[in-house]
Amino acid sequence: MDAKKALTETAGDMDKAADYLRETGVASVAKRAARDPSEGVVGVYRHSQAGRPVIGVLIGLASETDFVAKNEEFIEAANDIAMHAAASRPQWLSRDEVPEDALEKEKELIAAQARNEGKPDQIVEKIVDGRIGSFYKENVLLDQVFVRSDKFEGTVGDMVQQLAARMGENISISSMARVAVGEG
Amino acid sequence: MDAKKALTETAGDMDKAADYLRETGVASVAKRAARDPSEGVVGVYRHSQAGRPVIGVLIGLASETDFVAKNEEFIEAANDIAMHAAASRPQWLSRDEVPEDALEKEKELIAAQARNEGKPDQIVEKIVDGRIGSFYKENVLLDQVFVRSDKFEGTVGDMVQQLAARMGENISISSMARVAVGEG
Per residue in B104-148, pLDDT tens? Predict the structure, then answer.
């Protein structure tokens, strides 16, 4: 429905329609954010090695209505995100969850590296702000680039946001759990 | 192998054999505890409601060798424990994991109840020690009575210990994760 409207509004230009969808989608998702996403599904993925399951991931994907929760695309997305997390090993679900001390430690590390590279003090802070993005991209689920680029190109966060825009209600990853044996 | 030996040692008496197995099993498991259980499997269970998965549990069941890890009975046990945890909602894996403040709060509650019942101060402490067992049985996975009594009668901890004795190596639950949507 949203997609049709977007194509109408942009006179059939696919790229413009995608932008339109993103903008209006984001706007309407933000509007919906106040509502409580109390429905949803649990996505699961297990990775086997030599015939035995050695990594498992659970993803809680929350929606507002059970109408969306029982949608096949929605359930598939939950399983896809679980698969992604099994492969990409995010440490945290969102930036909010990164502990203050882990973040400070990383920032100090980047600053020290920048100084070692001979960067002047005035721009070290800017370098830190820039490079901390890589840290998030590596360790935070929502910032990671989705591994199945054949299915979706962008971050996991983008994927959830576009799903929300398409489904027409607030959708969020409510929890993530990863269990592995024989690692490290 | 252990079971055969137990039956031989106890002249075929099933009950005595079970006791023998438990005693010698426990002894040999304790001996093995120093070794590192670095192999294992991840058990999984998903519970669905109205056709959509709403609860998921992962259980890391660790063994010493991949010979045991690929044993069908071992993998089934991991899945069974995950199923148990989905139904019984343990908050912690072992007594060690119960936070000190949660334990203190529970003890104070029991003591207050005992005093309300008119119990003299001298025995309140004994009552606390006794009743704290119920708290563990309710909230700690290893202390919970396994839900599928048709498969095993006893606690999850007993189940793991007997599995270890039967498999002949150190086996332990290394991790547990539970994700649910739409609860509370």
Answer: 999 999 999 999 999 998 899 999 999 999 999 999 999 999 999
A52, A184 in Cβ contact below 8 A?
Answer: no
What would the DSSP string read from start to end of A124-177?
HHHHHHHHHHHHHHHHBGGGSBPS-TTT--SBHHHHHHHHHHHHTS--EEEEEE
C-alpha dihedral, A96 to A97 to A101 to A104, nearest 10°: -40
| Contact status of A38 with chain B (Cβ, < 8 Å) | yes
Query: Any CB–CB contact under 8 A between A50 and chain B?
Result: yes
Distance from CA of A183 to the nearest CA of B (A): 8
Do A33 and A170 meet the contact criterion of CB atoms below 8 Å apart? Answer: yes
Mutant choice from B55, B58, B74, B174 vs A, greatest count of A C-beta within 10 A = B58
Consecutive H or E run containing B53: strand B52-63
Choose among A38, A52, A60: nearest Cβ to B179: A60
| C-alpha distance from A118 to closest chain B C-alpha (Å) | 44
Is B27 touching A (CB cutoff 8 A)? no
Q: Is A84:A47 a contact under the CB 8 Å cutoff?
A: no
Tens of pLDDT, residue by residue over B64-82, are 998 999 999 999 999 999 9
Share of chain A above pLDDT 70, in %: 79
Any idea of the CA torsion for B95, B100, B105, B109, to the nearest 10 degrees?
A: 40
